[in-house]
Write a structure and sequence with these properties.
Blueprint: H1 4-18, E1 31-36, E2 39-45, H2 54-64, E3 73-78, H3 90-96, E4 101-106, H4 116-123, E5 127-130, H5 138-147, H6 149-157, E6 161-169, H7 187-199, E7 202-206, H8 207-213, H9 223-228, E8 240-244, H10 255-258, E9 265-269, H11 275-283, E10 287-290, H12 294-303, E11 308-311, H13 315-323, E12 329-335, E13 361-370, E14 373-381
Parallel strand pairs: 3-4, 4-5, 6-11, 6-12, 7-8, 7-11, 8-9, 9-10
Antiparallel strand pairs: 1-2, 1-3, 12-14, 13-14
Length: 393
């Protein structure tokens, strides 16, 4: 039976799990605690893809502290794995260490686990309490699902979590009437964006943005910022740069093509693109995907184990993705500036919706100041007309 202390300790495990953000994809964020007589005697989290899982990291910590785990309680934010992957089953380690009780946050939707991990522990005589489905833990479970929203969607659908990011003025413009967009927001907001890029496996933009801005779409953080994050330059993960470019119009001299051997770059083209240009791109180190629709592009990204995509594009591509319900989250940086202009570009273009009642709504909204600007973020309510909450899977 769960207690209030169980909820508090699981919150601590969640904070540990967050430390793996941007390092473990496409694996989940997981934290684990070993508790004896209401005292945490060991802890661990999944720190990087391919590395030890949270449970085994906690046991390593216990060994370093000379702590005996026999008869203790383990708190773990996600159901322990029970299959052989890049790491051995965590259920084996839990049983071997003599853990007497395990409190699990979320069930693992991975078909290789999906309840099997919990069943194995129970068969070994271990008392297992699962928070998911328990009314008293509902709020905390929602937080854990939010924390692992990328993993949960990717594992259950095979598609990446897509976050649309834009910077706009107070009157909703992402560029002036002349196309000038440097800079809509201040330095703190632009630095924040680079931190967000690091958290995503892929970054997507359209050919229009490439032709207009010649972007790099990599992560650029100052040494002092990296140090404050506990990272070294070689540890920074750059997202795979994906360009939606039906006719393969991307210039060979663009920054994206010129640096394709340094930073992974994909051009998603459609049937009919010039074969000679495609061959030139291949020779430059660009990876080519033949995708005739945006859905094909998203599915291909998932097949390549790209579990999360940050959309940094103009209003045309954004509108198309919204229209097909392919965007899961929005991050809008709003600058306290007004530039006007009837023809100045906006974050989402197209013909627009006819009725305010049809507007795309955001749930789980967060509003935070970033320097002089404001960041408004939230999840897309994809069935808003029915008034139901957006699924976090």
């Amino acid at each position: 039976m769960l207690t209030d202390d169980d909820l508090l300790l699981m919150q601590d495990a969640m904070l540990l799990a967050q430390k793996g953000e941007g390092m473990v994809n496409p694996n989940p964020l997981v934290g684990a605690l070993v508790v004896k007589d209401d005292e945490i005697i060991a802890q661990g989290y999944h720190a990087r893809y391919g590395g030890l899982h949270a449970e085994r990291m906690a046991f390593r910590d216990a060994d370093e502290r000379n702590a005996d785990c026999k008869g203790t309680t383990m708190y773990v934010t996600l159901e322990p794995c029970c299959h052989e992957g890049q790491q051995p089953p965590c259920t084996d380690a839990i049983i071997e260490r003599g853990i007497s009780r395990v409190v699990v946050g979320l069930n693992d939707p991975n078909p290789l686990v999906a309840g099997k991990g919990i069943a194995i522990l129970r068969e070994a005589g271990i008392d297992v309490d699962v928070m998911e489905g328990e009314p008293m833990a509902a709020a905390l479970v929602r937080q854990m699902r939010m924390q692992n929203r990328v993993f949960l969607k990717f594992m259950t659908t095979g598609k990446p979590w897509v976050t649309a990011k834009w910077a706009m003025t107070l009157d909703g413009k992402i560029a002036s009437v002349t196309g000038d967009s440097r800079w809509v927001t201040g330095k703190p907001a632009r630095e924040y964006v680079h931190k967000v890029r690091r958290l995503n496996t892929g970054i997507l933009c359209g050919i229009g943005t490439v032709l207009a801005d010649d972007p790099m779409l990599n992560v650029r953080l100052k040494p002092e910022v990296l140090e404050s994050m506990g990272l070294k330059e070689h540890e920074v993960r750059h997202p795979i740069r994906i360009i939606a470019d039906r006719q393969a119009r991307i210039p060979m001299e663009s920054q994206l093509v010129s640096t394709a051997r340094e930073f992974a770059t994909v051009v998603a083209y459609a049937d009919g693109a010039d074969e000679e240009k495609l061959q030139m791109l291949r020779e430059a180190g660009v990876v080519l995907w033949n995708c005739n629709t945006l859905m094909e592009l998203i599915q291909r990204a998932g097949a390549e184990k790209i579990d999360s995509i940050l959309l940094e594009s103009g209003g045309t591509l954004s509108e198309a993705l919204f229209k097909q319900e392919l965007i899961d989250e929005v991050m809008a940086f709003v600058a306290p500036k007004i530039i006007g202009g009837k023809t100045a570009t906006t974050p989402v273009e197209g013909d627009g919706l006819e009725l305010m009642s049809e507007a795309i709504e955001l749930t789980d909204r967060v509003v935070v100041p970033v320097g002089d600007d404001v960041l408004i973020s939230g999840l897309v309510r994809k069935d808003g007309l029915q008034g139901r909450e957006c699924s976090q899977e």
